[in-house]
Amino acid sequence: MFILGATCNGVGPAPPCALMATSPSSPVKGGHANGRPRSESRSGSVAHNSPRPSLNSPRPSLGRRPSAMTEGPAQESKPPDYLMLAILSCFCPLWPINILALTFSLMSRNSLLQGNVDGARRLGRNAMVLSVVAILGGIAIIVAAIVLNRECKTLFKLRLYI
């Protein structure tokens, strides 16, 4: 911005408005010291508008960008909690393991609701492993009980005939 009659070459006096307009270190009214415009945030304080708010703002949550929980790709990559598998494992006779599987499944769901995707993924994987172990162990116990029951009946019949 040039003002007629003002010399800004350092030889003569320059008016204060000319120094403000030409000096890069002096803040412009309503703007930032580096020439960037300032904008008002939700809290009423002045915040910077930039494509990356985490670099310039000490509180990036004041920006008007949507949070990570409302984005489309985050919902698509939701880790499974295996709740139905854990409930199914509760019908097997390996009771301490299937209750742990149900507990891990519920903890996985709660972690996901709190926004901890990595924790939800880890807890869901633990719930799945414990559920599969409980189901396979329960099937093994049932099969062993049936086999032992039949063997005992045949041994008992043989003793009666002797």
TrEMBL record:
It is found in: Membrane. It holds the Pfam family CD225. Residues 22-77 are annotated as: Disordered. Keywords: Membrane, Transmembrane, Transmembrane helix. Residues 49-67 have a biased composition (Low complexity). One of its GO terms (cellular component) is membrane. InterPro entries: CD225/Dispanin, CD225/Dispanin_fam. The chain crosses the membrane at residues 82-107, 127-149. Belongs to the CD225/Dispanin family. This is Proline-rich transmembrane protein 2.
